[in-house]
Structures are given as structure tokens and as C-alpha cells.
């Protein structure tokens, strides 16, 4: 049942997003026949160093969605404390709940089946404006963000320019 | 829980079969000082007992607070299954307790597969539906989605499924077992029951699973009357025969403490990989240098090499004839005096000291590894005696002697861990004397029962066995007395109110 249920749900979300797009990102399928791989374009939120950028990303859903979370990979060059050097986005709601080693309090911030492409992207955009430096995925970026905001801003600005060039 | 104490009938005391009587006597002497810690009583629980104990706690809370049993379970879980604390905390601050545990007020009940009057959008599959299930928080999801959510938790998340919450963002309400059981498949329900039981034992501070492979029993420490918390090592024996330390779940390691054993094991892993092998496997005969491998438990070595026949001690490699009198010193390490330490390279001295204790520890340890072999050899001997005309029952004393021997060796190995961490003072001197006495009689016992059948004298075996048991008890008593004295000294130094209980016991 997993497969068809996931397909139905993803197609429904796609239709909804096409009908009423959400500010801050656009989404579509990589290949029209496969609802599990999504092309995402993130628009850098205003009043952040990312403003003006158009960052390409790939969202991959597992077959047991919505009970397991998708993965989000930013393909454009990117510099952010919570994004791995290879582009993998690390935010708590994308972590499978699994055996919780960090105390049960954080469980509600982890993956839940009610999350949709939209709710995930809202979290990602909020992550861009307020990085979480307590559990950084990219330690260098986190250090720079905290210790040398000017250098951090410059580096992000370079990513933004590059993303505009590749359009 | 309240009923633990009422079932004291089932209590085991911690004594080993071999030293039972002596321990009882000696411990009673030490019950006079108020801090003395007699072996903590415990019970071995089968899966049925665990279910019963859990049900009793749930019933008590559900009846007192007039709530659903499944809500009582959630409450108990967040209070580590302390029913009295759930009840008293609840009466102090009902809302706070419910919120902390993730339980909804009793006015809202969980709804399982009901039909809504108006179609609504299921937050998971985003379809318009009427069927829904919800917890007391009222967050609806359609029943197929809810079932899939519950099923996924059980299938993929192991014991964590027990603490799963409402599937809606930011809702902290816990899934109840009633809802899970209504929505899960049969196989999932069975697995969930296993998880509930596992979580019960894991969460309960006075319960621990028996670490033996495939054993399903758990050990319950009986709540002391004064409500004192569980501290320190506690030797417990499971009905399956496994003997372990309740506090650290490792092999019973008395007289060493859990912390000493932990440090010791780390140290052994770091320092002695090579030495381990060198020391544990072969020794050269001190007279003829032939490599000798020890294949039985006794330390009295007689070189079988042609024309050698040297008798020596496996532990210190000294001649065996020095070992029966006062010259027996192979269990002691002489602390070198300050002058000498200064001259020596300090790290070298430390290594030397460590190796001294380690070689003796590993020696008893590897003798124990042959435990099964020793038991089998005893069976063979008893069979041989039967063949020589004695009856089966007559031979049984040998079995008991073997068990005593194993118990003594078991304790001896950890006495070296304990001694390693002792400061060089009077207590250490006394302890090492007790240790030496025990080691001597243990070797005597070992030598006696390893003799060929026709040379074994029953009275001699019994004598050595009794001596060993007595000395083992003495050793434990010395350790316990020291622990009590130190605890009292610490109390007096700190001037804590607990020290007041002492004059009472003297009066």
C-alpha cells in the first residue's frame, strides 16, 4: 500500500502547489512519471545574506512517505551552518525519529507524517534567516557565521552571484 | 510499588550456596553500625510476574486518580513507575503533571475509528474524509493514516515506539496503548507488547534484565524500608543461574567496586594486549626452561620434563616448598619506599605495579575459563569412583567442592582489582593478608581435588573447602567493615544529619 499511497499524496501536493504557489520557493517533478524526485528552486529570503539568490535543490522521497522523511540536497554552491559541504540539508524535522538518543523532548521537532513539501520548505527558508549553530552540519560555516559575520556574508554573496549566473 | 514488600516470601538473599551460612552469621555482626549494608534483598521475576507488577501499579494509579488505565500507564512511565510519586505529584499539581507526561485531561477521551458529522481534510493524506481517530487532544487523522503512523512507529522505531506522540506538529500527547492496540495489526500488537515490557524494566530504577543470552527474567531489588536510593554494586543471582552485578550488569565483581572494575578493564585493554598473551599462555619452568602451558586449575606445578620434576608455583615461579609456610608472599606487591621510588623511573614503577596485579588477576581469570572443563573432569572422577565401587551419592561432595573452588577463584580475581586501587595503608595490609590466606587454601583445595581418584581423601577435601569458604567470608567482611568505617568517617567530616542515626544503634 505504501507506494500508491505515497504517489497519491505527492501528486496531490504537486497539484496544490501548481494551483496556489507558496512564496519563497518553486517546485516541480524532475521526471513527470516519477513523483518521488522533486526539483526545488529556493529564492533567498529578503533581509538575509541569501537575498536575490536562486538555489537549485533536489528533494527525494522514500517509498514509505509520509511515514519517513524525504532528503533535501542543495545542488548550487551553498554556504550555511546547517547545510553539509555536499549540499545535504540538516534540519531536525527531516530526521527520522528512530531511537531517540537525545531525550524525548525533541521528538516533536523531528519528522511527523503531517509534513508536506510546503511545510518542509517553510522550515528550510526559516533556517536560512536564522541558522541553528548548536548542531551545525558545516562546522567551518558555523564558526565563520559566529566569529566573522562579514566574511560569512561575503562568502554567501558569492554563492548568490553564482546562482544568478547559472540561471 | 506497595506490593513488593508484601511478597517478601520470594526473597533471595545474595549469598552463594557455598558461603551461605557463614555469611549470614558474619553479616549480622556488621548490622550494628547503622551504615552497614547487608546484601540487598532481591527477587527474580518471570515475564508473568513483570506483567502482574506492571498491572498492579497501573491499577493503583487508575483507581486513585479515577483515570483510564492507558493514561495511568503513560503517567507511570514519566515517573519511572513510582506509583506513590505519581499520585502525590498529581494531587499537588494536576495540570503540570498531565502536561509533563503528555496526558490529556480526563474530559476528552481518545476516539478510535469514528465517523465525523462533517467531512474534514485529513492532515496526513490531505483527502476529505469522515472517518477519524484521535487521542484526547482531539487532533484527528483518518483511520488508515493513523494506523499507518502507528504501524510505522512499531515496525521501524523499536522501543522508542512506546513514547510515540500524536502525529500533529507540536502536540505532546502520548499515544496510549488502548489506541495502539486498536489500530495495529496482530503482529504489531504482539511486538508492541514486548516493547512495553522492555520499556517497563528499562525505565524502572529497581529493575534490570538478566544479561544472560536468551534469559527472559528480570531482577527486582526490594525497596529498603528507609527509601534509600540504590547505590553501589549489588550481587544478584538470576533463576537461570547467571550471577551479575545489578548496578553495572557485568560479572559479579565483589569485592571491587563497579567504578574500580570499569577503570581496571579500560586499563587492561590499553596496557596489556601483548603482555596479556605472553603472560596468560605459557611459562618457562624455572629449573629447565621448558615451556609449560597450564591446562588445569592448580598453581602447584610439577615439571614433567624428563629428569626435571621441579615443583614450582605458577604464580610467582618460586619453588613450591616455600609456599606452605610463612614465606608465601606471591600475592603481595611490596610498595617500594620513597627513596627508591625517586630513583626509579616513575612510569616504570607504575607499570611494574600494574603488571604485578594484572598477572595475578589474569591468572585466576584464566583458571576460571577452564571452569566448564573442571566441572566435567569432576563428573568423570565421580564416574570413576562409582566404577571403583562407591555409590553416586558419595561422590557428590566433590561437586560441591568444585563449586566452592570456582567461587573462591572468582572472588580472588577481583581482589586484585580491589587491591590495585587501595592506598598503601593498614587496611591494605590486612586485606592482603586475608587475600593470601584465601589464596593458599584455594590452591590447597584445587590441588586436592585434582589428584587421581584413589588418592583423594574426602575429609581433606571437606577441610580445605570449609577453610576456603570461611576465608572468603572473612575477606568480604574485612572489605565491608572498611567500607562502613570510611562511610562513617566521611559522614562525620561532612556533619550531615544522617550521622545522627549512629548513636541510636550504639544505645
Helical/strand content category of chain A: alpha+beta
Task: Strand order, main sheet of chain B: write it out.
Answer: 1-5-4
C-alpha end-to-end distance of chain B: 33 Å
Strand percentage of chain B lies at 5-15%
CATH architecture of the domain at 347-493 in chain B: Up-down Bundle
Q: What is the N-to-C succession of helices and strands of chain A?
A: HEEEEHHH
CATH architecture of chain A: Roll
Strand content of chain A: 15-25%
Oligomer: heterodimer
Count of extended strands of chain B = 11
What is the molecular shape of chain B?
A: elongated
The run of helices and strands of chain B is HEHHHHEEHHHEEEEHHEEEEHHHHHHH
Report the uncertain regions of chain A.
99-105
Largest interface by residue count?
A-B, 25 and 25 residues
- CATH level-four homologous superfamily name of chain A: Ubiquitin Conjugating Enzyme
Put simply, the count of helices of chain A is: 4
- What is the number of beta strands of chain A? 4
Q: Please give the count of helices of chain B.
A: 17
The average pLDDT score of chain B comes to 77
What is the alpha-carbon Rg of chain A in Å? 16 Å
List keywords for this structure.
heterodimer, A: 167 residues, alpha+beta, Ubiquitin Conjugating Enzyme, B: 507 residues, mainly alpha, Herpes Virus-1, two-stranded antiparallel sheet, 11 strands, 9% strand, disordered N terminus, disordered C terminus, ubiquitin protein ligase activity (chain B)
Structure characterization notes:
The complex is a heterodimer of chains A (167) and B (507). The longest helix of chain A has 18 residues, at 2-19. Chain A is α+β, with helices and mostly antiparallel strands and 167 residues long. Helices cover 34% and strands 17% of the residues of chain A. The radius of gyration of chain A is 16 Å and the shape is globular. Chain A has one domain: Ubiquitin Conjugating Enzyme (Roll). Chain A has a 4-stranded antiparallel β-sheet. Chain A has helices at residues 2-19, 117-129, 139-147, 149-165; strands spanning 25-31, 34-43, 54-60, 71-74. Among the domains of chain B are: 47-101; 108-184, Herpes Virus-1 (2-Layer Sandwich); 274-325, no CATH class; 347-493, Up-down Bundle (Four Helix Bundle (Hemerythrin (Met), subunit A)), CATH 1.20.120.1750. Chain B is mostly helical and 507 residues long. The radius of gyration of chain B is 30 Å and the shape is elongated. At the A-B interface, helix 1 of A face helix 6 of B.
Amino acid at each position: 500500500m505504501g507506494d500508491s499511497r505515497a504517489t497519491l499524496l505527492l501528486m496531490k501536493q504537486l497539484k496544490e502547489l501548481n494551483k496556489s504557489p507558496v512564496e519563497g520557493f518553486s517546485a516541480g517533478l524532475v521526471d513527470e512519471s516519477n513523483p518521488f524526485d522533486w526539483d526545488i528552486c529556493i529564492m533567498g529570503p529578503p533581509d538575509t545574506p541569501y537575498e536575490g539568490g536562486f538555489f537549485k535543490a533536489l528533494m527525494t522521497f522514500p517509498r514509505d512517505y509520509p511515514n519517513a522523511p524525504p532528503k533535501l540536497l542543495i545542488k548550487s554552491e551553498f554556504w550555511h551552518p546547517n547545510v553539509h559541504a555536499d549540499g545535504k540539508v540538516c534540519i531536525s524535522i527531516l530526521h527520522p525519529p528512530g531511537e531517540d538518543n537525545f531525550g524525548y523532548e525533541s521528538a516533536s521537532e523531528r519528522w511527523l507524517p503531517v509534513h508536506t513539501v510546503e511545510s518542509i520548505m517553510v522550515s528550510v527558508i526559516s533556517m536560512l534567516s536564522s541558522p541553528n549553530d548548536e548542531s551545525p552540519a558545516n562546522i567551518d560555516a558555523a564558526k565563520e557565521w559566529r566569529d566573522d559575520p562579514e566574511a560569512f556574508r561575503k562568502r554567501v554573496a558569492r554563492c548568490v552571484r553564482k546562482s544568478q549566473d547559472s540561471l | 510499588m506497595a506490593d513488593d514488600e508484601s511478597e517478601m516470601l520470594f526473597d533471595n538473599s545474595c549469598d552463594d550456596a557455598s558461603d551461605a551460612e557463614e555469611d549470614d552469621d558474619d553479616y549480622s555482626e556488621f548490622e550494628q553500625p547503622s551504615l552497614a549494608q547487608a546484601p540487598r534483598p532481591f527477587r527474580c521475576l518471570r515475564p508473568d510476574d513483570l506483567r502482574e507488577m506492571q498491572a498492579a501499579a497501573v491499577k493503583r494509579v487508575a483507581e486513585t486518580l479515577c483515570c483510564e488505565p492507558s493514561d495511568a500507564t503513560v503517567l507511570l512511565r514519566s515517573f519511572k513507575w513510582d506509583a506513590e510519586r505519581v499520585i502525590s505529584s498529581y494531587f499537588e499539581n494536576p495540570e503540570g503533571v498531565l502536561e509533563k507526561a503528555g496526558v490529556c485531561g480526563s474530559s476528552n477521551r481518545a476516539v478510535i475509528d469514528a465517523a465525523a458529522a462533517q467531512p474534514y481534510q485529513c492532515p496526513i493524506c490531505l483527502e476529505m474524509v469522515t472517518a477519524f481517530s484521535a487521542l484526547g487532544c482531539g487532533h484527528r487523522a483518518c483511520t488508515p493514516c493513523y494506523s499507518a503512523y502507528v504501524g510505522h512507529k512499531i515496525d521501524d522505531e523499536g522501543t522508542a515506539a512506546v513514547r510515540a506522540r500524536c502525529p500533529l506538529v507540536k502536540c505532546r500527547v502520548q499515544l496510549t496503548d488502548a489506541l495502539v492496540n486498536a489500530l495495529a495489526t496482530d503482529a504489531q500488537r504482539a511486538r508492541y507488547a514486548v516493547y512495553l515490557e522492555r520499556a517497563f524494566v528499562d525505565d524502572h530504577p529497581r529493575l534490570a534484565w538478566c544479561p544472560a543470552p536468551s534469559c527472559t527474567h528480570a531482577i527486582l531489588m526490594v525497596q529498603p524500608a528507609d527509601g534509600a536510593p540504590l547505590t553501589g554494586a549489588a550481587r544478584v543471582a538470576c533463576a537461570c543461574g547467571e550471577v551479575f552485578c545489578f548496578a553495572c550488569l557485568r560479572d559479579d565483581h565483589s569485592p571491587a567496586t563497579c567504578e574500580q572494575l570499569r577503570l581496571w578493564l579500560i586499563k587492561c585493554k590499553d596496557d596489556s594486549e601483548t603482555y596479556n598473551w605472553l603472560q596468560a599462555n605459557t611459562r618457562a619452568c624455572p629449573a629447565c626452561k621448558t615451556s609449560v602451558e597450564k591446562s588445569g586449575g592448580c598453581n602447584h606445578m610439577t615439571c614433567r620434563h624428563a629428569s626435571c620434576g621441579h615443583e614450582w608455583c605458577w604464580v610467582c615461579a618460586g619453588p613450591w616448598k616455600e609456599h606452605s609456610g610463612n614465606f608465601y608472599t606471591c600475592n603481595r606487591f611490596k610498595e617500594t619506599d620513597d627513596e627508591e621510588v625517586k630513583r626509579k623511573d616513575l612510569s616504570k614503577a607504575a607499570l611494574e605495579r600494574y603488571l604485578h596485579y594484572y598477572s595475578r588477576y589474569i591468572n585466576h581469570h584464566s583458571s576460571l575459563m577452564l571452569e566448564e572443563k573442571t566441572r566435567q573432569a569432576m563428573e568423570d572422577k565421580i564416574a570413576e569412583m562409582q566404577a571403583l565401587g562407591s555409590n553416586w551419592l558419595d561422590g557428590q561432595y566433590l561437586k560441591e567442592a568444585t563449586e566452592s573452588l570456582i567461587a573462591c577463584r572468582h572472588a580472588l580475581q577481583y581482589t586484585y582489582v580491589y587491591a590495585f586501587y587501595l592506598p598503601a595503608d593498614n587496611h591494605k595490609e590486612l586485606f592482603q593478608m586475608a587475600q593470601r590466606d584465601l589464596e593458599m587454601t584455594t590452591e590447597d583445595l584445587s590441588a586436592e581435588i585434582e589428584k587421581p581418584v584413589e588418592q583423594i581423601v574426602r575429609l581433606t577435601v571437606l577441610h580445605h573447602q570449609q577453610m576456603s569458604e570461611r576465608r572468603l567470608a572473612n575477606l568480604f567482611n574485612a572489605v565491608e567493615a572498611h567500607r562502613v568505617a570510611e562511610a562513617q568517617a566521611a559522614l562525620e567530616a561532612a556533619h550531615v544529619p544522617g550521622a545522627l542515626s549512629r548513636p541510636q544503634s550504639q544505645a
